[in-house]
Amino acid sequence: MPGPELPAPFLPFLDTPERAGVFTDFDGTLSPIVDDPESAVPVDGAIEVLEQLAGRLARVAVISGRPVEFLQRRFGTSPVVLSGLYGLQSVVEGERIDDPRAGAWREAVDDVVAAAGGDGPEGMKVEHKGLSVTLHYREHPEAADAVVAWATRQAGRSGLELRAARMSVELHPPVGIDKGGVVTGLAEGLGPVCFFGDDAGDLPAFAALDALRAEGRPVVKVVVRSAELAPELASAADITVDGPGEALGLLRALAVALDG
Which of 65, 66, 92, 246: disulfide with 241, CB 3.0–4.6 Å? Predict the structure, then answer.
């Protein structure tokens, strides 16, 4: 049975695959959203398709808010570039690279995690990522306002940077690193590039593609739709797909077209 047809915005990838890049988020894009963050895994076939694309394109990367160790446990010794904690950590051709500016903030992150055990709001789930912390309220959406207020106070006290995320907020070292900077760096020297994303943390990546488009670069912004999709994300899309399954279908269509 034939797979989905490759949308027209991806045709430049077929013209110059040796200069093309495919970049994607992980949670909600390659993996369904789950209540327990540690149980998230890519949809069946996602790793294989990304590795297939990595063999044909200049650069393929997963850019995530997860620690890079989490991504390594899913992808193993993959040719796919892994970028963790919004670019604070990465693995390229098996070499681990950490942003040297972030380590100084580890104690501040530890302090926020310790404070959460004392006066953190009821219903807040703390995900300690080493160099950052995510404060979830997915299981208790009624606690959203209290979690955001508490995180805002902690950001002011610690100097960490507050960022919105899907059913959560995050505190990061204030070193000017986000998915937009990662995309810009990975796209350097390339031609056509795309990014697949699904939540507010991906908006800087789409903004980076807008900047590349303004320079005349072919880009494709793919938004992975869910019931929690923010309006500003929907308006950023060139192409919208439903869930990780359809995102995988689009990646597979590109891989098939390249092999064809």
Answer: 246
Q: How far is CA 219 from CA 21, 31, 190, 196, 207, in A?
A: 10, 23, 11, 11, 11
Superfamily of domain 8-99+177-259: HAD superfamily/HAD-like (3.40.50.1000)
Beta bridge partners of residue 194, listed in sequence order: 22, 220
CATH 3.30.230.10 fits 103-172, yes or no: no
Check 15, 25, 99, 242 and give the catalytic one. 25
pTM of the complete model: 0.89
Contact 223, 21 (CB under 8 A): no
> How far is the CA of 128 from the CAs of 27, 107, 141, 169, 184, in angstroms?
17, 12, 20, 12, 27
Phi, psi of 194 (to 5 degrees): -140, 160
Task: Quick: pLDDT tens for 86-145.
Answer: 999 999 988 999 998 988 999 999 999 999 999 999 999 999 999 999 999 999 999 999
Whose CA is closest to 158, among 166, 150, 146, 167? 150
CA-nearest of 142, 146, 143, 137 to 166 is 137
Residue 25 annotated to the active site: yes
Q: Residue 101 corresponds to which tokens in the numbers above?
A: 């500016």
Average per-residue pLDDT in the chain?
93
